[in-house]
Amino acid sequence: MSGKRRPSVTLHDVAKHAGVSSMTVSRVINDYAFISEAARAKVLKSIDELGYRPNAVARATRTGVAQVGVLYSNPNSSNLSAFLMGAFRKAGEIGCQLLIEPTAAHPTSARAVVKLIDAGVGAVVLPPPLCDDAKILKLLAAAGVEPVSFATARPSPGVTSVAIDDFEGAAMMTRHLIELGHVDIAFVRGDPSHSTSTRREEGFRATMAQAGLAVADAYVVEGAFTYRSGLTAASQLLGLRRRPSAIFASNDDMAAAVSAVAHGMGIAVPTELSIAGFDDTPVASTIWPQLTTIHQPIADMAATAVDLAAGLARRESDNDQGRKHVLAELTLVVRQSTAPPAS
């Protein structure tokens, strides 16, 4: 649209501006047949000039077809395929319409959100780090569009969310390494803009403290949830004079990178170095040795997020009872990349 949308513009305003009936405007908006091209052109011209955006919630309530926006921020993430497949599966089951938008295609994440708002969605599924961005949540609230936070570690009380307990997941993995007999355990952080990064590190540190084990400063290094950042982190840790006997990376992509660096240095995994990841993405079971990791059901979580978003999009008014915090179950998956430390 070339005009700036005014919230006060209604379907009846468009009808008056175009010189047609409100029924005609409604038929054009819903793409009904048997509308003359001249009338259709007049209505579309008025919609553009007035900046009218059909009420997505009302339309969803009337037709039963909800429009849900789905954003994603990292096209290289190992989680992306499962995330999108889960979303598509649920949309097909419940008959809602998905609008998929990559934030990388826009100068800012806010621009991606605005595009979905202008497209008329009634709700948006927000992955990290967008789900933790107060400005994004405020932007959606101002437009009357419901957010559903996906995989946030800091769910907002008034925002529907689907997540896991990142603290407990990291604690589970750390306990596993300690029970194997590891004392010198290193940790690779995730992207600092993701709330999950903080909670996973907190889970690691708390579990180490409970076991009476110190965490050396040199054993905690920066990462960004990317394979490349994992390569850098691994080079730091494995280049130490006293290298760790186990490395716990905040996600599988970084853990896979640690494994690659170890192999390149001639360090045997797991006899000389145990490596653990988090997420149980496809890479965890395609590298050798296969990664011990924490499984989170990304596809099922995405399906749940779309289901909740569609329900919110169909509501004509705010309903706090429709907002939920769903916590998915985690599982420790023990594979070949972890073993007791060499004696």
Keywords:
single chain, 343 residues, alpha/beta, 434 Repressor (Amino-terminal Domain), Rossmann fold, 3 domains, six-stranded parallel beta sheet, four-stranded parallel beta sheet, 12 helices, 12 strands, elongated, disordered N terminus
Unreliable spans are 1-6
Oligomeric state of this protein: single chain
Biggest beta-sheet profile: 6 strands, parallel
Give the count of structural domains. 3
Shape: elongated
CATH topology (level 3) name of the largest domain: Rossmann fold
- Helix share, percent: 40-55%
Supply the CATH superfamily name of the largest domain.
Response regulator
The Rg value, from CA coordinates, equals 24 Å
Descriptive notes:
With 343 residues, the protein is an alpha/beta fold. The chain folds into three domains: 11-54, lambda repressor-like DNA-binding domains (434 Repressor (Amino-terminal Domain), Orthogonal Bundle); 58-164 and 298-329, Rossmann fold, CATH 3.40.50; 166-295, Response regulator (Rossmann fold). Helix content is 43%, strand content 14%. The chain contains twelve helices and twelve strands. The protein has a six-stranded parallel beta sheet with strand order 2-1-3-4-5-11, sandwiched between helices. It has a four-stranded parallel beta sheet with strand order 7-6-8-9. A two-stranded antiparallel sheet has the order 10-12. α1 (11-18) packs across α2 (22-29), α5 (80-94) crosses α12 (298-313) and α6 (109-119) runs parallel beside α7 (134-143). It is elongated, with a radius of gyration of 24 Å. The relative contact order is 0.13.
